[in-house]
Amino acid sequence: MKTELLNVKHLKQHFPIKGGFLGRIVNHVKAVDDISFTIYEGETVSIVGESGCGKSTTGRAIMRLDEPTSGEIIFEGSNLLALNKRQMNKKRKDLQIIFQDPYASLNPRQTAGEILEEAMEIQNVVPKSKRRHRVIELLETVGLAAYQADRYPHEFSGGQRQRIGIARALSVNPKLIICDEAVSALDVSIQAQVLNLLKRLQREFKLTYLFISHDLGVVRHISDRIIVMYVGRIVEVADKTSLFEHPQHPYTRALLSAIPVLDPDRKKERIILKGDVPSPIDPPPGCVFHTRCPYATDRCKEEIPQLRTAEGAAGGHQAACHYMEEIQNGSMERAYS
Amino acid sequence: MTLVNKTAVLEIRDLRTSYFTEGGEVKAVDGISLNVPKGKTLGIVGESGSGKSIMALSILRLIFNPGRIVAGELLYNGADLLKKSEKQMRSIRGNNISMIFQEPMTSLNPVYTVGEQIAEVYQIHENMNKKQAMSKAVDMLRLVGIPSPEKRVHQYPFELSGGMRQRIMIAIALACNPDVLIADEPTTALDVTIQAQILELIKDLQQKLHMSVIIITHDLGVVAETCDDVAVMYCGKVVEYADVRTLFTAPKHPYTVGLLNSLPRHDVDKEELEAIKGSVPSPFELPEGCRFAPRCPHAAKICFEQLPELNKLEDRSQVRCWIYTDKWGQQPEVNRTP
Ligand SMILES: Nc1ncnc2c1ncn2[C@@H]1O[C@H](COP(=O)(O)OP(=O)(O)O)[C@@H](O)[C@H]1O
Ligand SMILES: Nc1ncnc2c1ncn2[C@@H]1O[C@H](COP(=O)(O)OP(=O)(O)O)[C@@H](O)[C@H]1O
Ligand code: SF4
Ligand code: SF4
Ligand SMILES: [Mg+2]
Ligand SMILES: [Mg+2]
C-alpha cells in the first residue's frame, strides 16, 4: 500500500508586480497557476521544466518560504497552509530543502560542526551533550571526516559544501527533502558522487525526495515519477519509464528530443521548437503551449486542456493536451517540424 | 576521422599560460598542442578549472596581469600570433578569430541597442557609415534566426530572453565573417530546447560560412553532437585527444572513461553511478607524476613519480597515460578502488 506523504491541491502562486508612482499592483507573475500532485512515502518525484516555469516557486511554497496565493498543501494529513507560525516552524523538522548553491546557504563564519549543531538546536532534536557526537556521525554519513567539523565553508570544495548542506538537512531527521537544483552546479564526477549519496541516504533513512532539476539525465537517474511543468502549469506526470519511453505531451516530446545523446553516430530526430517561452505575466490563453506547439489548433487557443490519461497510455500517466490520441496515431498535421 | 588529417587553420604548439599569484604560479595552461582543422569543429572538454577558458583567451591574447602567456606558438595560417603587435591582434580579433562567451548578458553592453552593437563591428572594421552598418545588422539578426529583425535591432539586451541574447552574441561574433569561432560554454546557461536551437544554428552557419569552430564545454553530450575532434583537459594539460568517434567508442584515458561512466544517462538506467573518487587537486598542490593519479583506479608506482607524455597510438588518438606505454606491464597497482 502506498501512503500519501504530500498532497498539493490547486496551488497558485501569483506574485504582485507593482508599478506607477503610487506603487499600486499593476499585474501578477503567475509563477505557479493551479497545480495539483501527490507524493508517496519513500519515493522520489522530480519536477522538470525550463527556467522560469515555476519549479523553485513550487518548492518554496511547500516549505512556506513564500506564502502561496491559494491552494492546499496537505502533509501527513494536515494542511500546512492552515498552521500558525509556531506550528509551521515545528513542522519544518519534517521538511527540509537543499539549494543549488550551498555556499550561499552556509554561514561563512560558522564551522561545519557549528552549522550542524545549530540546526539541531533550532529543532531541539538531539540533547546538547550528544550533539557533538551526532555531528561526527552526520559528517561520516555524508562522506566527510570527523576532523573536518572544525573547518569553515570556504575550506571545502563545491561538492563537499553540498555534502554539508545534505548533512544539515539530515540532522533533524526529516521525512521529505526538497532538492532544488542540488547537483546542478557540480562537475559531473562530483555530481555522480552526490547523486549516489542521495540514493544511499534514501534507502538508509527511508527518505522521500522532491527533486527539482532542469537536467533530464539526472532526473531519469534519480526519479520514480516525473512532473513536467511549463509556464506555471503541469503538462505531464508519469512514472519515469513511461515518461521517457512514451511521452504524451508535445512539449515533453520536444524537451526529451532536445537532450544531446552521447553517441556521435546516432542522429536523433530532433523537434526544434520555434520561438521563446512565453512570460508568466500574461500567459497565453487556452493551452499555455499553443504559441510554440506544432499541432496547435483554434481550440487550443481557447480551451485549457486538463490533465488526463490518454487512451492506451499507462495508468497514472497523465498529460494536458487535447489531441494526445490523434498525435499518437499520426492523424494530426504538424505546422512545422 | 579528421584528427591531424586536414590542413589546420590554427595550430597551437606547446602553449603555456600562467597566473603569478601570491600563493605561487598557477599553470593554467600547461603545454598544450592542438590543431583546429579548416571548416571543422574542435571540442575542448574538462571539469571547471581545467584551463579551458584560459586557453581560449590565450588564443586571442586576452590574458592580463597577473596572467601571462609564458611560452608556445599560435600559428594562424602559419604565422605566429604571439609575434604580432597589439594593433595587428586587434584587427585579427575583429576580422579573423571571434569568441562568444557563456553569459551573453555580461558581454553585451546594456546601454546600447543590439543593433548598435552589431553595427559597431561594421563601422570599425569595414568603415561603413551608420546607415549601411545598421542594415547589415538587420541581415545578421535574420541570419541567426531572430524573428522580426527590423524591430529587434532597436531593442536593448535586457528586453531579450537568454536564448535571444546568445543569438545576438553569435551575430556580433560572426559579423566580420571570421575563419575561426571560439565558443566558450555557449549553451551552458541555456535550457535544453534553446541549447538545441543554438547548436543547430552554429552548425548551420559553420557550413554556410566555412568556419572552423572551437567549442568549449563540460557537457559530453554537446561534444558528441557537434565536434569532429575532441581534446579532454585535466589540470591544464590535454590527457586525451582523438576524433569524436574514437573518443566515444574507444575512450582510453582513465579520466575520460571515468567522466563517461559518471554521467547519468537519459537512455540507460543504472542503480549507482560510477563516480570518480576524490576531486580535482588545487593548482597549488598538483601531484607529482600523473595529475590524475590520486583519483585513478589503475594508478601504479610509476604514475606517482613521473608525468606521462601525450603518446600517439595506432588509431591516431593521443593519450597521456602510462598504461599505453612500454613501461606499463610489471607495474604493481597501488590504488585500486574498493
Ligand atoms: N518573489 C518573486 N516575485 C516575483 N516574481 C517571481 C518571484 N519568484 C519567482 N518569480 C517569477 O516566477 C517565475 C517562476 O520562477 P521559478 O519558480 O524560480 O522558476 P524555476 O525554478 O522553474 O526556474 C519566473 O518568471 C520568476 O521570475
Ligand atoms: N585571474 C586569475 N588569477 C589566478 N588564477 C586564475 C585566474 N584566472 C584563472 N585562473 C586559474 O586558471 C585555472 C584555469 O581556469 P579556467 O581556464 O577558467 O578553467 P575552465 O574554463 O576550464 O573552468 C584555474 O585553476 C583558475 O583558478
Ligand atoms: S492542447 Fe493543443 S497546443 Fe496544447 S499541446 Fe495539445 S495540441 Fe499543442
Ligand atoms: S598514468 Fe597512471 S595514474 Fe595517470 S591515468 Fe594513467 S594509469 Fe592512471
Ligand atoms: Mg529554480
Ligand atoms: Mg571556463
TrEMBL record, chain A:
Coiled-coil boundaries: none
Domain ABC transporter stretches: 17-256
GO biological-process terms attached to the record: peptide transport; transmembrane transport
Gene Ontology terms, MF aspect: ATP binding; ATP hydrolysis activity
Keyword Transferase listed: no
Keyword annotations from UniProtKB, A to Z: ATP-binding, Nucleotide-binding, Transport
Keyword S-adenosyl-L-methionine: no
PANTHER family per UniProt: D,D-DIPEPTIDE TRANSPORT ATP-BINDING PROTEIN DDPF-RELATED, TRANSPORT ATP-BINDING PROTEIN
Identification of the protein by name: Peptide ABC transporter ATP-binding protein
Organism: Paenibacillus abyssi
Gene giving rise to this polypeptide: oppF
